[in-house]
Amino acid sequence: MRATALYGPSDLRVEEFDVPKLGPHEVLVKVVADGVCPSGVHAVRNGVQWGPPGVKMPGFPGHEFSGDVVEVGDSVEKIKVGDRVVSDLILRCGRCYYCRTGRQNLCVAKGRLGYYSWAEYIKTIDYQTYKISDDTSYEEAAFTEPLACALHGNLRANIPPGGNVVIIGAGPMGLLHLQLAKNLSGARVIISDLVDGRLKIAKSLGADEASKPNEGLTEKVMEISEGRGADSVIVTVGNPKVQEESIKLVASGGTVLIFAGIHTLGEPATTINPNKIHYGDVDLRGSFDKTADEFVRALKLIELGVVDTKPLVTHRFSLDEVMKAIDAAEKLEGLKVMIRP
Questions:
Q1: How far is the C-alpha of 248 from the C-alpha of 256, rounded, in Å?
Q2: In angstroms, what CA-CA distances link 19 with 28, 31, 51, 200?
Q3: What is the mean pLDDT of the chain?
Q4: Best label site of 73, 139, 229, 286, fewest CB within 10 Å?
Q5: Ramachandran region of residue 281, left (φ > 0), alpha (ψ -120 to 50) or beta?
Q6: Measuring CA to CA, how many Å separate 280 from each of 153, 155, 235, 254, 283?
């Protein structure tokens, strides 16, 4: 089979590998649709290995996928050949403190079965593989993993019913957060981005206000909140300066959620006013990955139409064009870039 292998910075090759052999509880999936995540772009550009520290190159990127089951292990019961599926590729240990206290996203021993999903075939585990409803397309289902991460963050953002929310960044993740805030919390949402096309899509997906940061964003936030600021500010942009400025938009008693990581090598530098946090009784929170429960719920939200992912797909590339896919995602030429092996 063909799969991508990362050997160093921007050295991503499509090569021939053996089709994975299955254990008793494993499933072989032919990949049909696979999204390009910013973390994947970061991994490719910086030659960063995916997986536990110390694992040797090459690395195997990709994790936002859907496809068809073509083989199952001897002990697999609920998944059969021909099923359309998605799978959570992160294996949690179930034994560490975080797994045992319901925070599987922080598992200290996360693992994987083998290849990631920029490939023709991928091996998954049966208990983390889920059937897709007949009415859900492969591309819609491929959003399950990123939506699960957005759901984890949205729940941590403490959005009150009918609250005022600011979302910084109208990329794919920001637009998922927008729909969750509107459809789960009934929030009034202002979303900000530098790209006009993204703001237009944000308005079509329900944003109450969509504007560039230098076009009166602060004034609009204060206007809708009677001068208090937003109840929740969600930052989906991996930029230290933007994260610093986001603190100014939150109301006393509100929450700022740092959803995006900063994709630079080394420790990123940022300065946040501690007095705003202290005297404003502000919650400053982070969000990383998702739990198994959130993965299941994300798929259901897509299948029920609560979150519409169709407008978010703007580019499609073959596996042989994977570097073109990386370029398009990195240059913000559209929204979600899909690889169709």
A1: 10
A2: 9, 12, 20, 43
A3: 92
A4: 286
A5: left
A6: 22, 21, 19, 8, 9
At 93, which CATH number? 3.90.180.10
Paired sense of beta strands 129-131 and 84-87, if any: antiparallel
Q: What is the pLDDT of residues 281-331, one digit of tens each?
A: 999 999 999 999 999 999 999 999 999 999 999 999 999 999 999 999 999
Q: Are residues 143 and 6 in the same domain?
A: yes
User: Which run of H or of E encompasses 243?
Assistant: helix 240-246
Q: Domains in the chain: how many in total?
A: 2
Which CATH number do you get for residue 231?
Answer: 3.40.50.720
Per-residue confidence (pLDDT) for residue 52, from 0 to 100: 47
pLDDT of residue 226: 94
Give the whole-number percent of the chain exceeding pLDDT 70.
Answer: 95
Residue 285 to residues 32, 153, 242, Cα–Cα distance (Å):
36, 9, 15
Half-sphere exposure of 207 (CA within 13 A, CB side): 24
- Rg, Å, the chain Cα set: 20
Does 37 have pLDDT greater than 70? yes
Cβ contacts of 292 within 8 Å, gap of 6 or more: 88, 92, 104, 128
By residue range, what is the domain housing residue 231?
158-286
Q: Which is nearest to 255 in space by CA: 125, 165, 183?
A: 165
